[in-house]
Amino acid sequence: FLALIIKDISAQFEAEERFESAFNANPAPAVIVRLSDLRLVRVNAGFLEITGYARDKVVGRSVYEVDLLAEAQGREKALEHLDAGEPIPHREAFLKRPDGGTHAVIVAGQPIEMGDVACMLFTFADLEPRRMAETALRQSEERFAKAFKLTPVPTVLTRACDHTVTAVNQAFVRVFGRSEKATLGRTVAETGLWVDDAARERFETTLASDGSALGVETCVRDGNGTALDCLVSAERIVINGQDAVLAVLQDITERKRSERELYSSIEAVMTDASWFSRGLVEKLAVLRNPGEAGKPMMPDLTARERQVLDLICRGESDKTIGQALSLSGSTVRNHAAALYRKIGVNRRTQAVGWGRDHGFPTV
Known about the structure:
Elements: H1 10-25, E1 30-34, E2 39-43, H2 45-51, H3 55-58, H4 63-66, H5 75-83, E3 88-96, E4 102-114, E5 117-126, H6 128-150, E6 155-159, E7 165-168, H7 170-176, H8 180-183, H9 188-191, H10 197-210, E8 212-221, E9 227-239, E10 242-251, H11 253-269, H12 278-288, H13 303-313, H14 318-325, H15 329-343, H16 348-357
Antiparallel strand pairs: 1-2, 1-5, 3-4, 4-5, 6-7, 6-10, 8-9, 9-10
Helix pairs in contact: 11-12, 13-15, 13-16, 14-15
């Protein structure tokens, strides 16, 4: 007798076909190694793309020839897992390319069966973008460190959370006479750099709320305790993943001293400005009070109109003004009318207000 036994294995073939399709379509690099001889029997498009190999150059070659675990962390232990057919935990490695280059990856191995054949499925994650980003970040930080060290402007780096000084450049040490040893590891407040603690606190508050503070005039102390006029700008940045503050200090002591001397000279000259032209007086006034440079220019008042305005601001009547200036009442009123028209008012009280805003009555 002849017994014929038929077993339906359609489901197995369908499963293998689905696996084959998924394996080939998977964009993540992957290879399948036969455990009996450690030769590659399947490679997908992702692996070929990341390595630059042609399919016929890797299929049939051994794990050692292609070196799937090149420079892997714990390579010998991973090979022991492979020989034993055990899972290989993920680890960083470098895939060798046919052009002699390498490609950084994370590799892991998982035992599988293809039909009745024991195999190892290797999958790879591309680490090259991360490595390139880390290299770019390292190079950027190296450039920053060099620029920080060599810039001729005094510069300070502090932690954003507590304003502890973490670095100062050579210009800071030279200009302010404060050594790194005496400055690093201390908060800005502890260094006593700022003369006015309230000003420092306002500056730090602005930094915390706005992220930057630009062109703030203040006074700082050098290493000998001498107060120096300084222009400070700072901005929050990230260094090595930590929030920090980069502050630049410009010593403007000499400039401020020159300005004060200039203002003193202007004050002395303007104590008697009657012989200056109106235009020159106004320019000197702007130099004396730079913050008022954008205000409207003084109307073109005659010397008599200025005298009348001065007496009006002192509260004098038309009769008293006439007596003081030896003018008739009608002439005083004519001067007042011309004055009102030029300064844009129509009442005596408005003229007084305008005059006081513009330096009348004069001393």
